[in-house]
Amino acid sequence: MPLRMKMHEARKQGAALLAAETIDRAAIESFRAQQLQMAETASKRFSQALADVAEVLTPAQRKDLARRLEKMGPGMRGGMRHG
What we know:
Elements: H1 2-19, H2 25-56, H3 59-72
C-alpha cells in the first residue's frame, strides 16, 4: 500500500511540474528518473511475489494460474492502467 500512495502522490507532483509558471527541465528529469525507479521497485516486488506463490503450487496449479493471469489482461498483471 505505501507504494500505491507514493504513485498517487507522484501523479500530483507530475501535474504540478507541468502546470508550473515556468518549466523546470531539471526537476522534470529528476521526476522521470524517480518514476522509473518506482516502477522498477514495483516490478521487482511483483516478480518476487509471483515466484513465492509459484514455489508452493504444484505444476498443474501453476499452469492454471498462468491461464488465469493471461485471461486477466495486462492491466491486472501490473501493466499500465488507463482511466
